[in-house]
Specification:
The complex is a heterodimer of chains A (about 525) and B (about 550).
Chain A lengths: L1 H22 L26 H16 L6 H7 L3 E4 L2 E4 L4 H14 L4 H27 L4 H13 L13 H19 L5 H15 L6 H4 L1 H11 E7 L3 E8 L1 H4 L1 H19 L10 E3 L4 H19 L2 H9 L11 H10 L5 H4 L6 H5 L1 H4 L3 H18 L16 H15 L5 H24 L7 H6 L8 H8 L6 H7 L5 H21 L1 H4 L11
Antiparallel strand pairs in A: 1-2, 1-5, 3-4
Chain B lengths: L1 E7 H14 L2 H22 L7 H14 L16 H10 L2 H6 L1 H26 L2 H12 L2 H6 L6 H20 L4 H15 L4 H16 L1 H6 L2 H33 L4 H4 L4 H10 L9 H16 L1 H16 L6 H8 L1 H12 L28 H14 L2 H20 L5 H7 L9 H9 L5 E3 L8 H4 L6 E2 L6 H7 L7 E5 L3 H7 L2 H10 E6 L3 E6 L7 H10 L3
Parallel strand pairs in B: 2-3, 2-4
Antiparallel strand pairs in B: 4-6, 5-6
Helix pairs in contact in B: 2-6, 2-7, 3-4, 4-6, 6-7, 6-9, 6-20, 7-20, 9-10, 9-11, 10-11, 10-13, 11-13, 11-19, 16-17, 16-19, 17-20, 17-21, 20-21
The chains are: A mainly alpha (about 525), B mainly alpha (about 550).
């Protein structure tokens, strides 16, 4: 049994590594010459978005100058996601992504593949997330092996998370840290000998997550609540008299210095580079340099200006007051949640219809409301809630709802739970394979081509015909790819569509086999989870 | 290694028993509500939020005119806004201080808030038999910052909510036990008060009457037997008081203003105002049921708070599925009356809501009338209380925690007090032109001719005594002054395109007359103020007496 488990985990990791290598975005060479980087800014390149360029520029600065302060060339390259303070330039994003891709860059640069291996780090994060999803399914929910394999594959290759695992965004690390956090709390809850280690891991993950993205503090909050309630116990004790005993496991407090140390370091880092412990890159004044993207952005801004001029003075006063339109506000939730979940340009269920099946797992909460399911659901709700409160739910030009990538990991677990329910299981599995086919095709198209898909409102203004995944399929037909492996080794032999078909078929056959054949080889009862 | 706290169970039980046996829970609820009302009103007073709404001042002025005006009396109540909220202010409006600060209205709304909270508590307890659940329902209502703000203003929402709660409470008592005829009559009486508070009340009593019909439907279809007789008696016992308000009001409009439906047909009605939005293509919910539903749901959610809104929807679903609850469909129907009323009126174009979540950015205004969603707060509080009742202890902790989290989100500013935003920066806000500051500094007595409907300037803030103003409701002073501006007025205040401007300033003959007797004392692009050159030849009192004698 243990061997089966290890082999399954190896299969998950192997698939993660292979498929991410097959689709990773990149160009040959180390891409470290700061004067030449600017020429690489174009659609369907590894540097198509400033969201990729800014952390990459910061990584180069760390490598070359041992500082996060950017040179003018690097600032120009990373703009407009660059801020400045006096004559100093910094990336808008926390340094976690840049720092984490540096080892990959250094390793790859020995083989003249610095940029590619730096980008592969994100695939590694997703593979780590896959491993934790596998462990959560097995250990926490006691799902059968086939379902525990399906969940990570659904997350990594059945959703648009794929597009963000082959380039450098903060979402793949965020999802990996979230899953690691959930699993660590669960292990801590089991009260083994290593309880302190798991407590320290939970605090460490929470602290380190802030180095990748500040909203992670809110996203991981449900797991921290789970951590807290796992540390508390209320019991009735009968000694001389009946007493109510409220106990708190001291490991939660003893391990806390790990978090405090990280936060202190974060504060020191901000104070050292940005001039104040509370100062973050995103608060700096934006540095802009005219590039094709900026010109396009200016057109969008012009439209916004026009709209604003149409609004009354009172409306402007209202905006200046910051009440309605401040960065994080409940007022935005209804519209933004709709954009993120069902919007025609970014909707989760449009880009990844497989996610609809998560409802099958979520409704099991009604009959078996175990705390872990509730916490996982709370995590998803927190994710949707936080990003629905943001001014820009689209995440700029993006492929699918990139802010919901951590949720996709949670949804995938619920999908696996839903699939293992005995009622109408064949129908559930058939629906799954059909929806997985569609979702993985959409995900793969994005991963191989571009993430630069405008929201509909911008596409309409710019008179672009595309605002969702159809653009990726257009590029697929036109042989326009960002995939390093395809461009380097296959472009001269097969079309991009053939390459995509080969990857998709391999993945699909594997998934169908796992769903229908693996259960036949296993002696496990279909739903151990239901007995929990 | 654990950190332990131990509590003697006997002591805990003793405290619990003492609380259950000795704590006057209803008094605690009343006192808590009173305390919250006082704190919230003090806050609004200190921040000058009480009379932020343009309508708030109008409500105060209507009440004031019934006792302090050159033509005082109940005719000043007018024919558009329903009279009860204004009549409730009368005992306090005598005081100029309470009138000018708006506190006369705050006292009324605060009283209504306390009673509403108390009866919400009683209603949840009636349904659940749980004091804890009733307390959660009460807290959900009482700690809602939109409710707390509006209860500090002279607006009419809180009086309606109070009568809605009172009528619903007694009506639910009757629905649960149809032998309680006194409860039915009480429901009818408070329904009557609701129908004379806001038009929403008309819908409430109609739905309640419909519920009685549904209760006795089999007997009605048979039209014989004991039940049929019971129905007839009870139906009459309810509708006689409940529908009387509507009859009174339409009769009033007919007798005083010549049209029983003056409130919906006149140029001052909401319908007329909405027609201008419609002409501009800015009435998005008009004849669009989907938009009507979405607009009201989102407005309700904004008033309730997202978390509590979701909790209450879950509570509603659980309630409807609870087979132990007798007559649950009928009771739920009464609780959702505000939703039905506003969705229907939005669809008909009788009301309009602009809310930034939904209103297109191209619209001139994107925040208006969001306070309509306030009527859904009792619904949310009721079903949140019910949800708490249905949950297990851990679930109860979650419901309570989430309800308090909602309050915290309001405090930190994540959830916006949208009714305050509408009053401060929305279209509902009262204008504060410089002219009223000038008037406050320069007014030194004498009658002031001004178009009150156009809200040219605030009487409250310009320090003009109510009995020194001439507005459209002062017959014959108003009509005569528009013909002969110099006849009564010492001051004439006009705003571009208001009635005074159009009648006097735009008419060359009257303009000549105006400049013969008055000097232009204040000029701004929108507002002009004229002051009489020579004083009136007669004593003002005599002049007013003579005018009153001419009154038809």
């Amino acid at each position: 049994m243990r061997l089966k488990l290890i082999l399954s985990a190896v299969l998950v990791v192997l698939l993660g590594v292979v498929l991410h290598i097959a689709t990773v975005r990149g160009l040959p060479g180390n891409m470290g010459d700061t004067t030449k980087l600017g020429s690489l800014i174009r659609e369907a390149s590894p540097f198509e978005s400033s969201h990729e360029r800014a952390p990459y520029a910061e990584m180069i600065a760390i490598k070359d100058n041992h500082t996060i302060q950017l040179t003018k060339d690097l600032a120009n390259f990373g703009s407009p996601d660059i801020g400045f303070k006096g004559t100093k330039y910094f990336s808008f994003f926390p340094s976690g992504v840049s720092a984490s891709i540096l080892p990959g860059y250094l390793l790859g640069s020995r083989f003249n593949l610095g940029q590619v291996s730096a980008y592969l780090t994100m695939g590694l994060f997703t593979t780590i997330a896959m491993l934790f999803i596998f462990l959560i399914c097995r250990d926490v929910f006691e799902l059968p092996l086939w379902a525990a394999i399906i969940a990570p594959l659904t997350y990594a290759f059945g959703t648009t998370a794929w597009s963000y695992s082959v380039t450098i965004y903060q979402h793949a690390p965020a999802a990996a840290l979230a899953m690691a956090s959930f699993y660590s709390v669960w292990r801590y809850r089991q009260k083994g000998r290593k309880q302190f280690v798991w407590a320290a891991a939970v605090w460490f993950i929470y602290g380190i997550s802030l180095f990748f993205d500040y909203p992670n503090a809110l996203l991981l909050l449900p797991f921290m609540v789970y951590f807290l309630i796992s540390s508390l116990s209320v019991s009735m004790v009968k000694r001389r008299k009946k007493v109510l005993r409220i106990s708190m496991n001291s490991a939660i407090l003893r391990a806390m210095p790990v978090f405090i140390a990280l936060i202190l370091y974060h504060g020191y880092h901000n104070a050292h580079f940005l001039g104040g412990w509370k100062q973050i890159g995103n608060n700096l004044q934006r540095y802009t340099v005219k590039t094709a993207e900026q010109i396009r952005q200016e057109k969008v801004d012009a439209k916004k200006r026009l709209e604003r001029e149409n609004a009354t003075k009172r409306e402007l006063a209202e905006k200046a007051g910051g009440g309605i339109t401040k960065a994080l506000s409940e007022d935005k939730v209804p519209v933004n949640a709709q954009i993120l979940l069902v919007g025609v340009d970014k909707g989760l269920f449009l880009f990844s219809p497989i996610m609809l099946l998560a409802l099958l797992g979520i409704i099991t909460l009604r009959k078996k409301p175990i705390v872990e399911k509730s916490i996982l659901l709370a995590f998803i709700i927190a994710n949707v809630f936080v990003y629905s409160s943001f001014g820009d739910p689209y995440g700029g030009w993006a492929y699918g709802p990139r802010y919901l990538i951590p949720s996709m990991a949670g949804f995938s677990i619920f999908i696996a739970i839903g699939l293992t329910q005995p009622k109408l299981q064949i129908l559930r599995k058939l629906t799954f394979v059909i929806l997985f086919g569609v979702s993985s095709a959409i995900a793969l198209a994005g991963a191989l081509t571009t993430n630069l898909v405008p929201p509909k409102v911008e596409a309409d203004f710019l008179k672009l015909k595309y605002y969702n995944f159809t653009h990726a399929f257009d590029l697929l037909h036109k042989n326009v790819s960002t995939s390093f492996v395809y461009n380097q080794y296959f472009a001269s032999r097969i079309s991009l569509m053939q390459y995509a078909e080969a990857i998709w078929m391999t993945l699909y056959v594997l998934v169908v086999a796992v769903v229908f054949i693996v259960p036949l080889m296993s002696r496990e009862t279909p739903v151990k989870e239901a007995n929990k | 290694m654990n950190i332990n706290i131990t509590l003697d169970l006997k002591k805990i039980t003793r405290v619990k028993e003492w609380v259950e046996a000795h704590l006057p829970w209803e008094r605690v609820i009343l006192l808590t509500a009173l305390l919250l009302a006082v704190i919230a009103t003090a806050y609004s007073f200190s921040h000058d939020y009480i009379v932020m709404y343009g309508d708030a001042e109008s409500h105060l002025n209507i009440a004031k005119r019934t006792i302090n005006s050159i033509t005082p009396g109940f005719a000043q109540l007018g024919g558009i806004w329903l009279p009860i909220p204004h009549m409730m202010m009368v005992p306090f409006i005598w005081s100029d201080f309470l009138w000018r600060t708006g506190l006369a209205g705050s006292i009324v709304s605060g009283f209504c808030y306390v009673i509403s909270g108390f009866y919400l508590f009683k209603l949840v307890r009636l349904i659940t038999k749980s004091t804890a659940a009733a307390t959660v329902g009460f807290l959900t209502f009482a700690l809602n910052l939109n409710i707390l703000y509006m209860q500090s203003t002279p607006m009419t929402e809180l009086p309606l909510i109070m009568f809605f709660m009172l009528s619903s409470y007694y009506f639910v008592r009757f629905v649960l036990d149809d032998k309680r005829v006194l409860s039915l009559i009480a429901a009818g009486f408070f329904g009557f008060m609701a129908t004379l508070s806001r038009y929403d009340g008309w819908f409430l009593v109609m739905i309640e009457a419909g519920v009685i019909v549904l209760m006795y439907l089999p007997a009605i279809l048979k039209r014989n037997g004991e039940k049929w007789k019971m129905f007839q008696g009870k139906f009459l016992a309810f509708i006689t008081p409940a529908f009387f308000g509507m009859i009174i009001w339409t009769s009033w409009d007919y007798l005083i203003l010549g049209d029983p439906f003056y409130f919906t047909n006149s140029q001052f009605s909401a319908k007329s105002q909405q027609s201008s939005w419609l002409a501009r293509g800015e009435l998005p919910a008009y004849h669009n049921i989907f938009q009507s539903i979405i607009y009201y749901l989102v407005t309700a959610m904004s008033n309730i708070g997202l978390i509590v809104f979701v909790l209450s929807i879950i509570g509603l679903i659980w309630y409807l599925r609870d087979k132990k609850q007798q007559q649950r469909l009928l009771i739920a129907l009464v609780m959702i009356v505000p939703f039905i009323f506003y969705i229907v009126t939005l669809w008909l174009g009788q009301s309009v809501i602009f809310i930034p979540h939904l209103t297109p950015v191209s619209f001139e205004w994107r925040l208006f009338n969001v306070r309509y969603g306030l009527m859904a707060v009792p619904f949310a509080a009721f079903f949140t209380g019910y949800l708490f009742f249905r949950c297990k202890p851990s679930g109860r902790a979650l419901v309570l925690g989430l309800s308090l989290a909602q309050f915290a989100l309001y405090i930190v500013g994540y959830s916006q007090v949208i009714t305050l935003a509408d009053g401060t920066v929305g279209l509902s806000h009262a204008k504060r032109p410089d002219a009223e500051v000038w008037m406050r500094d320069h007014y030194n007595g004498g009658l002031v001719l001004m178009d009150d409907y156009a809200r040219t300037m605030s009487l409250l803030r310009s320090n003009i005594p109510m009995q020194e103003s001439i507005y459209i409701g002062n017959k014959p002073f108003w009509d005569e002054s528009l013909r002969e501006p110099e006849k009564y007025a010492t001051w004439i205040v006009m705003q571009k395109d208001d009635t005074v401007w159009n009648s006097i300033y735009d008419d060359p003959l009257k303009q000549g007359r105006l400049f013969k007797y008055f000097n232009k004392a204040y000029t701004s692009p929108e507002i002009l103020i004229f002051k009489r050159i020579k004083p009136l030849g007669v004593d003002e009192k005599t002049l007013i007496e003579n005018g009153r004698k001419k009154k038809p």
